[in-house]
Amino acid sequence: MARKLINNPNDLVNELIEGYILFNSSKVKRLGDLNVIIRADLPVKDKVGIVIGGGSGHEPLFLEYVGKGIADAAVHGQIFAAPSPDLTYNAIKAVDSGRGVILLYNNYAGDVLNFNIAQEMAADEGINVQTVLINDEISSAPKERMEDRRGTTADHLLFKIAGAASGEDMDMDSLVRLLRKAVYNSRSLGVSLSACSLPQTGFATFTLEDGKMEFGMGLHGEAGVKKVDLMSADDTAKTILDYIIDDLPFKKDDEVLVVVNGYGSTTRMEMFIVTRKIYSYLNGKGISIYSAEVGEFCTSQEMAGVSITLMKLDAEIKKYYGCPV
Amino acid sequence: MARKLINNPNDLVNELIEGYILFNSSKVKRLGDLNVIIRADLPVKDKVGIVIGGGSGHEPLFLEYVGKGIADAAVHGQIFAAPSPDLTYNAIKAVDSGRGVILLYNNYAGDVLNFNIAQEMAADEGINVQTVLINDEISSAPKERMEDRRGTTADHLLFKIAGAASGEDMDMDSLVRLLRKAVYNSRSLGVSLSACSLPQTGFATFTLEDGKMEFGMGLHGEAGVKKVDLMSADDTAKTILDYIIDDLPFKKDDEVLVVVNGYGSTTRMEMFIVTRKIYSYLNGKGISIYSAEVGEFCTSQEMAGVSITLMKLDAEIKKYYGCPV
Q1: Fewest CB atoms within 10 Å of the CB: A161, B106, B172, B257?
Q2: If contacts are CB pairs under 8 Å, which of residues 148-187 in chain B contact chain A?
């Protein structure tokens, strides 16, 4: 049985959204009775709109990323399931101020399918909709097939950069170019120390034996790439960073953003112990940390584990990352 | 075996602090090699100092509450263990600018013993040190013995109010009066859905059978007051609120701060489902929510569950709560 505080499992996403809207009613509202959260002040005049979204169950994704300086709307599917096209279509309509809308989301087959349908529906009405896919997870496909890689915690940084840049009168083409560059500069890899359970059913999405850890496990229980005996925090951080650094590759004198993301039940103590090693290891390689974020940004219910994301900075990305949200 | 990302278990607190300082080096620093985190700009001239602290393992408590507009120093014991007197004594000395220091911490026997020794050591050197104990947890002793109650998530609000008021030139006596009023106006109660494990050993602090939940469980595995079959989120919130509302009591037309605190592995989805019920239930009783905070503030490793805190507001408390941190 899942040890979860819920009511009727069918109402999970609806009640999540109701609770969040009550909590944050000065800044966001719900679009009708849809599982779509929008800025309270939409549409924002003369701004390219930013629509994000995906399956629920990864909170704070996606609804907590809506507001001034960040996304204009978030569409929520059911737990670990892509949002249906009508949600995204309605979000696009609510957000569009005449300068077009960018769909910025993580690369999963179901999401791509449904977001693409919404894009076509909106295009039929003459709305300029462009897509930027996030595919930062390096273990899910080799570099030669980067376009097949899954999206994970780089979204936390991308949403912020998209919100800041779109709020400063950047046009559609420039925005798409900026965001694709920021995606290309991002690399993530995680390690799981336990499974997670689906809140609707209480069943675990996979099993991971006591004393083992698995690199590259997906946010929905997708199989990882390497299962090993539990390693120390320092060795874990080093292993992840070696994979990430090699992949871009990140080089001496690069300046990076770092995200240390907890999957759900991992404590902040563990995250800071990992952060400590990241600083010393990157420092030893001459890679400079411009800023680090440590917390739960892209979760998988009560899964134990962390992911590390590096994004290589240039002056343009740095400018927009630094804008207030 | 604990599913924890750590190195040598003896280094947990030291590495937590090292990681946090690297992460936040512009605002905080470590006091020598002690497990004491202080504002980087200490001592702040003409300000009553605020020293907080307690056992580690409850992160973000206590170290993440140090900074401008919040505490001046945090002293950390080992996991779930009170900090030794010398740490607090050194923190007092570092913080004092001549106007005295307040020790603001949760009411646990070991903490009281050790903080009191530090207070005496500092008093011997002529430093005016006052203590404000936080005792918001209503199930740990009856109301007639409020002074025996444990401190929990009200500390999140108290630290903010103390930091704001002490930063606005409030003198020692006025500050102590304000903080004691705010403590008195605070009530908390939680429910646990699982045990937590000690990161040093991997052993659980207690057992809780599948399908059960326990109200009033302590942050260190102290026995609760009522074990029941798993209830819905709505019934759980209502049960907790009934206890809390009755205890102060909170009345129609009261204005309150609400904190919904996750103990560790509880998802933000669950927290917002609970938050939803809190809004409707308090609204039905004519109690007005000035602001709510939803997150992990006072954790117990990977324990599942939530606590709810209400603090009754007046104009003075509201003023300081609203100050930027």
Answers
A1: B172
A2: none
